[in-house]
Amino acid sequence: MCSDDHAVFLSSGSRSRRAIGQTGFHRFQLGGTTITALCDGHFALSVQEVLRDGEMPMQPLLERACVGAVVSSHVNAFLIELGAHRMLIDAGAGDLQDATLGDMSAQLVAAGLRPEQVDTVLVTHLHPDHIGGLTRNGVAVFPHAVIHVPREEDAFWLGAGNPETVDASVRATFEHARQILAPYRAEGRYRLFDSGAVWNGCVTAESLSGHTRGHTGYRLHTKEGDVVFCGDLFHVASVQLADPDVTVCYDSEPAKARTTRAAFLADACRRSDIVAAAHAPFPGLGRIVAADNGYAWHPVA
Ligand SMILES: [Zn+2]
C-alpha cells in the first residue's frame, strides 16, 4: 500500500512574482505531521555545462527524457510542523544567486507562518542555494532558530577546506558559508551533528555523502510512512534516475555521489518512501519507481 494513500492535502498558494510552472507553497499532512514545500524560485541549468557522462551516452538519454539544452530547475525548501516545533530543511538561496531565487521566506509567510516560529533549521549541505536564505544583510532571518549543520560540512567549507578540489562554480561557497552562518555562530545558535542524529524523536539524519563531503538527508518517520528529504541527491531527475551514474559539476566527490545515489534510489524504491528533493519540479515530492534498467520520478501531489 502506498503511504500517500493517507496524505491529506491542506492548502497551496502562490505569491511569486516569478511564476514559471507551479511555484508557491504546498501543504499536506501525513501521520499527524504537517509538511509544507516552499518554492524558493528557479534557475536555468545548462545540461552541457552541468551534467557529466554516466554509463550511457548522454545524448540519447537527453532525447529520451525530452531534455533540452537548458533545464529550468526549481529550488525547494521544506517545513515540518511537529507539535509546537517548526523545523525547516534548507533555506533557499536568499540573495546569493539568481534574481529568480530567494522567495522561500516570503512563501513561508504566504503559508501563514512567521520566521520567528522556526526553532530548528536542518541543512543538507552548505551550498549557497541551501543556506543563502538564512541571513539577509548580515542579520539572521530566523531570530529564534538553532542551525544544525553536518560536522563534515562545517569542517570542509568553514575549516581549512581546499578550494582547488571543487568546481569553480561552487568555489564561492567557502566565503558565502562563512558570511551566512556568522550571525548564528555569534549568537550561539549553531550546532554540529553526525549521521544518525535524531530531532524530536522522529527526524533522523542519514549521510548522503558525495555531492559534498557531508551532504546529509533527513528521514521523517510518521505512523503512515516516511518522508525522506534528500537534498541534492539529483539535479535532473529524468536523466540521473534513468542513469544514476550521471554526476553534476557541483559534486565534490563524483564517484562517491554515484554510489550514494544508486544505494539511495534502490532503498527509496523498495520502501516506497515519499522523497522530498531540493531540485525536483515544485513541490519536489515524489516516489522512486523502477523503470527500464534504472529508475523514474513519480510526482506525489
Ligand atoms: Zn542545490
CATH architecture: 4-Layer Sandwich
**Assembly annotation:** single chain
Largest β sheet strand count, sense and barrel closure:
8 strands, mixed
Number of distinct helices: 8
Give the beta-strand count: 19
Question: For this structure, what is the CATH class?
Answer: Alpha Beta
Low-confidence stretches: 1-5, 15-21
Question: Which ligands are bound?
Answer: zinc ion
Count of structural domains: 1
How would you write the strand order of the largest sheet?
1-2-3-5-6-7-10-11
Termini, distance in Å?
Answer: 17 Å
Provide a brief overview of the structure.
The protein has 301 residues and is an alpha+beta fold. The chain has one domain: Ribonuclease Z/Hydroxyacylglutathione hydrolase-like (Metallo-beta-lactamase, Chain A).
How would you describe the overall organization of this protein?
With 301 residues, the protein is of the alpha+beta class. The chain has one domain: Ribonuclease Z/Hydroxyacylglutathione hydrolase-like (Metallo-beta-lactamase, Chain A, 4-Layer Sandwich). It has 8 helices and 19 strands. Strands 1-2-3-5-6-7-10-11 form an 8-stranded mixed β-sheet. β18 and β19 form a beta hairpin. The longest helix has 18 residues. It is globular and about 50 Å long. The N terminus is likely disordered. It binds zinc ion. The site of zinc ion (ZN) has 6 residues, from α4.
